[in-house]
Amino acid sequence: MKRMRFEIIRGGVSVAAFLLATWGAILWAAPIVPEGVVWEEGIEYTRPDGEPLLLNLARPKAGDGPFPAVICIHGGGFRAGSRDGYDALCVRLAARGYVAATISYRLAPQHRFPAAVHDTKAAVRWLRANAAKYAVDPARIGVTGGSAGGHLAQFLGVTAHVPQFEGEGGHAEQSSAVECVVNVYGPSDFTKSYGKSVDAHEVLPLWFGGNLDTHRDLHIQGSPLYWVTPDAAPTLCIHGTDDKYVAYEQAVWLVDRLKASAVHAELVTLEGAGHGFKGADAEQADVALFEFFNRRLKTPKAR
Fold this sequence. Notes:
- The protein is an alpha/beta fold.
- Helix content is about 30%, strand content about 20%.
- It is built from nine helices and ten strands.
- The chain is globular, with a radius of gyration of 18 Å.
């Protein structure tokens, strides 16, 4: 029987913030796992301050690998959401020849920036440290996420060599660099979010410990736009022009900055789409994501 799950909305978390957890889904079901995929749930990848953080992982059953890998990061305004929202995508990626993991990370307001950044980097390092066990090619690890997860994915792509964001999540001998990023309506510049987003005034003070007036320095530090260098990972941004939570221009700014730094960057614009794709918009976003990962990750890197 298919297991069904209803996520509990925590006290003080709005329905709007909860909707950011996935591409528009509130009701999540255990993924239907095809015969050719191995599915594992609840694998601990790090334990910051004694708090176990878990991931779910899907991988091809046949073949020796090593396979390219994709880490999926859920959204939820940095204060809500669940890794289970990306279970189905992980299974679909595994059916296409990837090892795919969806991760939990520490949430605000209990855990402020950069705790979630430290956790996502720990997940990349964990995957590299366990590459032989799961038949992963450590040179071909990509990342994706939506909304807050898109931001965290993008942050991985632009801060691979910034020690202050590594944290102490284990496997320090491994790199947290990723080969490419698919950023689905993730913010790039928090200093320009207020007044352009229906909930930035609620979400960002919880994550940064204050608003733009009192914590401008952290808003700048937490913005991927300000960390772009020529070493940034190739990036695909997917964004709707009618997004009320993360303005479409946030993707434009990021792609322009990446291109100005001679980094490969693409923008898929979904005209009239909001925050949380549905129907044809969701289908177009899926096609773009799979095509980008195939181009950037399917060919083994020279040793």
